[in-house]
Amino acid sequence: MPTQLLGPLPGPLLGSSARLHSVEDARRAARWRMPKLIFDYVDGAAGAEQAALRNQQSLDDVQLQPRALVNVDKRDISHSFLGTQWQRPFGIAPMGMCNLTWPDADAMLAAAAVSNGMPVGLSTAASSSIEETWERAGENAWFQLYVGQSIDLGLSLVDRAATAGYTTLILTVDVPQVAPRLRDLRNGFKAPLKIGPRQFLDFALHPEWSIRTLLGGTPELANFRTESGHTAFNREDGRGKITWEFLKQLRDHWKGQLIIKGIMHADDAMQARDLGVDAVYISNHGGRQLDSAPAAITRLPLIRQAVGADCPLLFDSGIRNGESIVKALASGADFVMLGRPYMYGIGAAGADGLQRIIDILSAEISQTMAQIGATGIADLDAGVLPPE
Ligand SMILES: Cc1cc2nc3c(=O)[nH]c(=O)nc-3n(C[C@H](O)[C@H](O)[C@H](O)COP(=O)(O)O)c2cc1C
């Protein structure tokens, strides 16, 4: 039964979004409301989680230059990227199995993308299908491709996306193998979920999540639904088969805009640019893949310098506030994506919590711009960083 049909359950039981004043507030509230198994899947990272920590610390270390006596009374955070005028310079990164965070999370993300004028990535491993998400979000939806054991299966997903209407495809290349995530291993996290006594206790302690999930049905890998219930995509299977040859093949195959996600080296960025991608997406997967990876923000200026001023760059990994979005834009990104913060908002207070996160980030960007003498996103370049 779709959980929307539950009627009066939502508002009163979910936390109030009014008491959320930062992404960290939402993270703390979500930690209470979500089963530990699920919170840790979202919040966790590879190995000892040093890369995830480094992402945030390095963003905190970037400084912005305050400026005086600039008329910043009117400020505009709308921004053009890849031919679309977005209402804000940030979007929703693709995330697998979002409906585990909260039933209907995918629908909330799609609706928020449309009403807030921002893009939403739909993962290959999503709990909503390519077609459902196109119905919900239309041109705000970008399809994210993982290629696992079968290149033909990967290309068939690309064809489904084209048929549905998508015009932007993200190829993620930083998961040659899903990295061991200690919290998931310790909690016994498996997709699809396997429920033993420990998980049962965890769910029993979080009855609202559990009742809703029970009524809504356990989330599944919706792009691989089959009548037999067998899924053609195994999360644990290697995705390390593809090479630059595949990127060439994909560039020929896909006529829409192509983004390559998970680039951390200037040589890789230049090679992708030269093979005709429309944008390079700098990311270390939020620290979820290589624990010893450098902080993504430290690669951004290097990659910008290598690819030149005209190559569109997206950035994610570790952004937790509007100031950091400004820092990424000033360091060479043309557009910024975030992952976990939206999940914290949903886990804390459902669709209201998600909206609250988007509002907080938007207000923080605008307030930061006022301090540094900027009135539009185009003002956010190296000139707003303190001189060396
Ligand atoms: C729960 C979760 C699932 C994710 N699943 C995917 C995925 O299926 N495909 C993908 O390209 N990236 C995936 N990512 C990575 C995000 O797209 C993004 O790179 C990362 O979350 C950015 O870091 P942040 O969470 O610190 O903002 C996932 C991230 C999280 C937190």
Quick synopsis:
This protein is α/β, with parallel strands linked by helices and 388 residues long.
Features:
disordered N terminus; binds flavin mononucleotide; eight-stranded parallel beta sheet; 388 residues; alpha/beta; two-stranded antiparallel sheet; 15 helices; TIM Barrel
Describe it for me?
The structure is a single chain. The chain has 15 helices and 10 strands. It has about 400 residues and is α/β, with parallel strands linked by helices. The chain has one domain: TIM Barrel (Alpha-Beta Barrel), CATH 3.20.20.70. Helix 2 packs antiparallel against helix 15 and helix 12 crosses helix 13. The N and C termini lie far apart (about 60 Å). The N terminus is likely disordered. It binds flavin mononucleotide. Flavin mononucleotide (FMN) binds next to loops.
